[in-house]
Amino acid sequence: MLLIFDVDGTLIDSRAMILECARRTFADGSFPHPGDEAFLATIGLLPDRMMERLFPDRPEPERLALADRYVEVVRATRRERPDIETPYDGIEGLLAAVDRAGFTLGVATGKRRPGVDHMLDTTGWQGLFRSLQTAESGPGKPDPTLIRNAMAETGHGPDATVMIGDSVFDMQMARAAGVTAVGVGWGYNAGDALTTAGAHHVAASVADLQDLLLGLDCRT
């Protein structure tokens, strides 16, 4: 069985990083800061889609320039504070447990590949994930391409694939790909929003998620 994990808000607590980058991105006042919760609600989308959702009435060239600015701020902040993004408590143990149990692991994220490589380097998770689907891998969430890529790469079908994430976009992507959608309650979207978006299950804690996943048949 293939377990595909989102990154920000699911494996990695990047809230401080995201909010600091948003503050710096909007500091010149050319766009109004949308507010922390509104900005966090776009996490999982590609940067251009984030800005489109936040500022639908602004001209596209302005939104694209803002998206580029956000990407540059993220890169700069990560260089300045390489330890600002850390795994949620219990995630290390969960990944070790499902790996030992024989599950195939993958990642599907709106992060660019350098950000994922940074995560792998700082956590020591190199080699843990058989498939790494990033912003460069195809259309962003909620398009199902990232999940379909991961299934093709690992040889698993929809009936043997689970998508685990904290955003409504993860749940929508999972449903569009025909796989099981599992939401997590510690990220940037509320559990009821995940259920409305199509989650088959919502885990309230890392321990709950571990119990749920280990109850699945890894051999399918």
Would you mind describing this structure in some detail?
The structure is a single chain. This protein has 220 residues and is an alpha/beta fold. It has a 6-stranded parallel sheet. The protein has a two-stranded antiparallel ribbon with strand order 2-3. It has helices at residues 15-25, 36-40, 47-54, 60-80, 91-100, 113-123, 145-154, 168-177, 191-196, 206-214; strands spanning 2-5, 12-13, 86-87, 104-108, 131-133, 161-165, 180-184, 201-203. Strand 4 (104-108), helix 6 and strand 5 (131-133) form a beta-alpha-beta unit. It is built from 10 helices and 8 strands. Helix content is 46%, strand content 13%. The model has no long low-confidence stretch (mean pLDDT 95). The chain is globular, with a radius of gyration of 17 Å. The chain folds into 2 domains: 2-13 and 87-214, 3-Layer(aba) Sandwich (Rossmann fold); 15-80, DNA polymerase, domain 1, CATH 1.10.150.
